[in-house]
Design a protein that fits this description.
Layout: E1 2-6, H1 10-21, E2 25-29, H2 33-42, E3 44-48, E4 51-55, E5 59-60, E6 69-74, H3 81-86, E7 92-100, H4 107-112, E8 120-125, E9 130-133, E10 136-138, E11 145-149, H5 156-167, E12 172-174, H6 178-199, H7 203-208, H8 210-229, H9 236-249, H10 256-262, H11 273-283, H12 288-306
Parallel strand pairs: 1-2, 1-6, 2-5, 3-10, 6-7, 7-8, 11-12
Antiparallel strand pairs: 3-4, 8-11, 9-10
Helix pairs in contact: 6-8, 6-9, 6-10, 6-12, 8-11, 11-12
The structure holds nicotinamide-adenine-dinucleotide.
Nicotinamide-adenine-dinucleotide (NAD) binds near residues 76, 83 and 268.
Length: about 300
């Protein structure tokens, strides 16, 4: 298949390398000149538990490419989804599908501005990846992908995409109840990312400070209550365990919102912390801690990017 990966950052390049190795034709759509330059000149480097691979792939802004693609895989940060997909409209044909396993809420709606909901596949992935430098992605573990149609129905397209991902070594499971995984990860990210980005604490430092722990769990519980109010059958105990697991096993990790803030990049506030606060307000659920963190993050985001 001919697939455009929109956002050739950490996750986009991981998926690109794996899909290209399994025989798919990959076009990387990116706006970062550093990333375009590095991958254009030296290829893409992927370091994982098996070693290092290098991939020569086309990369550029959307206007570099012509002709429709079979699929779009969207891996920008949430606040860039709508504009990034809109810039690729000339690549979208009547059968083109779009896959989003980005974190947070609102990505399906942002993609829907350019492509019908019946052709959008949504989901969740817990594959970990981070950019070491432009053109070089580190993949410190493995993960899986869970997907379902954003329109709620099973289709041949879902089977094809799931098989394609699994054949590329990106284990994919079809899950009609994928919203549960999306919300459990949203609750986890709203709690860990928000606290880390406001306080500068790593995961281990948050685990060691009773005040930080209390705030992490306050946001987590609020997000889980909102999910329940939305009728999503999240497993609260499993989500709490995933936080405790991270507290023990991912101690040096700086959650992505903190990494973005330190690097002067925009943070995924509206699709994560702000999304939980907005959904709480919509459902009439009290989420004062999350709402306060969403405001603090917005203040910090403005400071970071205007300085
Ligand atoms: P990233 O910041 O490394 O990559 C995003 C890329 O999108 C950047 O290279 C940026 O330049 C590019 N971009 C921004 N605007 C664009 C546009 N208009 N057109 C094309 N490209 C554009 O982010 P990431 O870590 O790869 O995360 C992507 C998404 O996946 C996020 O929603 C994140 O929360 C989610 N996610 C990340 C991980 C992880 O471990 N990194 C795991 C699961 C999910």
């Amino acid at each position: 298949m001919r697939i455009a990966i929109i956002g050739a950052g950490a996750m986009g390049t991981l998926f690109a390398g794996r899909l290209a190795d399994s025989g798919q034709e990959i076009l990387l759509v990116e706006v970062s000149l550093a990333q375009i330059d590095a991958i254009g000149k030296h290829g893409l480097r992927i370091s994982d538990e098996a070693g290092e691979t290098r991939h020569i792939l086309p990369i550029g802004t959307a206007d570099r490419y012509v002709g429709v693609v079979d699929g779009l895989v969207v891996f920008t940060k949430g606040m860039h989804t709508r504009a990034a997909v809109e810039a690729c409209r000339h690549l979208i044909g009547t059968e083109t599908w779009a896959l989003t396993v980005q974190n947070g809420l609102g990505n399906v709606e942002a993609i829907e501005a350019s492509i019908g909901r019946d052709r959008i596949i949504m989901g969740m992935t817990n594959w970990p990846a981070s950019l070491v430098e432009p053109g070089h992605v580190q993949v410190p573990g493995t993960g899986e992908i869970r997907i379902w149609s954003a329109a709620g129905m099973h289709s041949q397209r879902l089977d094809t995409i799931s098989e394609m991902l699994s054949q590329a070594g990106l284990r994919c499971v079809l899950d009609p109840r994928v919203e549960i995984s999306i919300w459990e990860k949203l609750a986890f990210n709203a709690a860990m990312n928000s606290l880390a980005a406001v306080t500068n604490l790593t995961v281990g430092q948050m685990a060691d400070r009773p005040e930080a722990r209390a705030l992490v769990f306050a946001i987590l519980e609020e997000a889980l209550l909102v999910a329940k109010a939305r009728g999503i059958d999240v497993d609260a105990e499993r989500t709490r365990r995933s936080v405790e697991f991270a507290f023990t096993h991912h101690r040096p990790h700086k959650p992505s919102m903190l990494q973005d803030r330190l690097a002067g990049r925009a943070m995924e506030i509206d699709t994560i912390t702000g999304a939980v606060a907005a959904q709480a307000s919509y459902c009439g659920v009290a989420a004062p801690v999350t709402a306060t963190f969403a405001r603090l993050l917005t203040l910090l985001d403005g400071d970071t990017r205007h300085s």
